[in-house]
Design goal:
- By secondary structure, the chain is of the alpha/beta class.
- Helices cover 45% and strands 19% of the residues.
- It has 2 domains: 165 residues, 3-Layer(aba) Sandwich (Glutaredoxin), CATH 3.40.30; 128 residues, Glutathione S-transferase Yfyf (Class Pi), Chain A, domain 2 (Up-down Bundle).
- Helix 4 packs antiparallel against helix 7.
- GO terms for molecular function: transferase activity.
- It comes from Meridianimarinicoccus aquatilis.
- This is Glutathione S-transferase family protein.
């Protein structure tokens, strides 16, 4: 096994809006990374061998450390590569607070607009997969409701985009000023998704001249330097590494988590997904890291956000 600095690997696919957020984040930091393309639909056996069951996109891998959800990805990128920073002003706390809006309510709204506008044109398998993931067990009714409710959904999106457009109306290049920040990636993936996947997206967005100028500025950042990598090589990279996560469990943890405790972790909603089981390795208010072993890969540390994820103690 080696403990040399391993490469950044992003398990993603080109059409994923959340992966686009991570790719822009790589661009902001000017990073080189390896691009592993994963299937758009489950099953994703090469990915879940690393994660223990988590199948959402994207997942970042650095050696035998596996980072699920862009919350964890951005936190870890800032820790490992502090310059240029995702927080060029003194507003880091505000940016993380705003990210719960962009990644929560606003993303859910964008998904309903995109899926609802597609209607019967959605491939059946894709409709069932994404509908179940984002709209719950009664996803078919949810898709019909989103289609019927498109004018209302567009109205709900229009107001916040006016707010952002106003923020940019003084000519600033990015949301906080001259330098790009995490919030630019967090907002950009919503606009990118609406423009590219909603048939009325370009017309809808044309109302926001300052937003469109900003959108081009963010797109011009690029994605850093990506080189393709096979899923097999990504697994080999994990096999040849050991996790470098640092063990630490917050003594004030509200759930009373302790090192070595067996837990399962899953998104805090009913998306029909497989939870991930392992032993608590580290936990604080931002994240939980669980240790798991795969017979083919070896030791892995899988990192999840604490916010938006449910941790259930199993023993």
């Amino acid at each position: 096994m080696t403990h040399a600095s391993p490469e950044i690997i992003l398990h993603n696919y080109p059409q994923s809006p959340v992966a686009e957020k991570a790719r822009v984040a790589f661009g902001i930091k000017g990073l080189s990374w390896r691009d592993v393309e994963i299937p758009r639909l489950a099953p994703k056996p090469m990915l879940t061998k690393l994660t223990g069951g988590y199948r959402r996109t994207p997942v970042m891998q650095i050696g035998a450390d596996i980072y699920c959800d862009t919350q964890c990805i951005l936190h870890e990128l800032e820790r490992r590569f502090p310059s240029p920073t995702f927080f060029p002003t003194s507003d880091a706390g505000l940016i993380w607070a705003l990210s719960r809006w962009t990644d929560g309510t606003m993303f859910d709204l964008a998904v309903k607009i995109v899926l609802g506008s597609a209607g019967e044109d959605l491939p059946k398998d894709f409709a069932e997969d994404r509908g179940r993931l984002y709209l719950g067990p009664d996803w078919a009714a949810g898709l019909k409701a989103a289609n019927a409710d498109l004018p209302h959904l567009a109205a709900q999106m229009r107001g916040p985009l006016h707010w952002v457009n106003g923020q940019l109306s003084d000519g600033r290049r990015f949301v906080l000023g001259a330098d790009p920040a995490a919030i630019d990636a967090q907002l950009f993936h919503l606009v990118w998704f609406l423009r590219g996947r909603w048939n009325n997206g370009p017309v809808f967005l044309s109302e926001f001249a300052h937003l469109e100028r900003w959108e081009k500025n963010v797109a011009d950042i690029g994605h850093g330097t990506a080189v393709s990598m096979s899923p097999e090589d990504a697994i080999r990279a994990a096999t040849q590494s050991e996790p470098d996560a640092v063990p630490s469990v917050d003594a004030l943890d509200p759930q009373g988590l302790k090192a070595g405790m067996r837990v399962v972790v899953s998104p805090d909603l009913d998306g029909g997904e497989q939870p991930v089981e392992g032993a608590v390795f580290a936990a604080d208010h931002n994240s939980i890291t669980i240790h798991r072993q795969d017979p083919d890969v070896g030791n892995l540390c899988v990192h999840f956000p604490r916010i938006g994820y449910r941790v259930t103690i199993v023993d």
